[in-house]
Each structure stands twice: as structure tokens, then as C-alpha cells.
Specification:
The protein has one helix and four strands; from the N terminus they run αββββ. The protein is an alpha+beta fold. It is elongated, with a radius of gyration of 25 Å. 0% of the residues are buried.
């Protein structure tokens, strides 16, 4: 019997934390953030690169590579640019 009472009390304690509180959630954009919703989105050109036997592509959903160049025989430099600018300088 005491095990059932303990289980009921534990369930009540857990479920009491699931209720809605009076606090209002914060806005996603902090005050002073840069709003870019009206700016056009620049999608990257979809293509593949083959540099020195290394093949790289951005032809799939979510790929963000905008450019790739080979600077020497051991170094490739990738370029990822934002979809729109200016970037939001907030800490979020």
C-alpha cells in the first residue's frame, strides 16, 4: 500500500510541473536585432567541384557551400556566404 501512495505522490509531483505558468516567453529576436525578413534570400548555385582528386558537392538540400578553391597542393578553401545580409549581430 505504501508503494502505491509513493507512486501516486511521485506522479503528482511530476505532473504538477507540466502545467502552464504565468510567465510570458521571450521573443526570439532580442531588442535591437537586425530584421531581415523582407530581404531576398540568395540561394547558392548548385554544383560539384573536383580538385586534385577530391570531390565536393552542394547539390543536396541544406548544403551551404558557395565556392571552393585550391590554394596549394595540400589546402582547399571553402566559402560559405549568408543567405541574406546584414547578419544579425546578437548573441543568439
Amino acid at each position: 500500500m505504501s508503494r502505491h501512495i509513493l507512486l501516486v505522490c511521485l506522479a503528482a509531483a511530476v505532473l504538477s510541473g507540466c502545467g502552464r505558468r504565468g510567465a510570458v516567453p521571450l521573443s526570439y529576436d532580442p531588442p535591437g536585432s537586425t530584421i531581415t525578413t523582407s530581404k531576398p534570400i540568395e540561394a547558392p548555385v548548385r554544383r560539384s567541384w573536383s580538385l586534385g582528386g577530391i570531390n565536393v558537392t552542394n547539390t543536396y538540400d541544406g548544403a551551404r557551400l558557395n565556392g571552393l578553391e585550391r590554394t596549394n597542393d595540400t589546402l582547399l578553401v571553402g566559402r560559405i556566404t549568408p543567405e541574406n545580409a546584414p547578419l544579425n549581430n546578437s548573441a543568439w
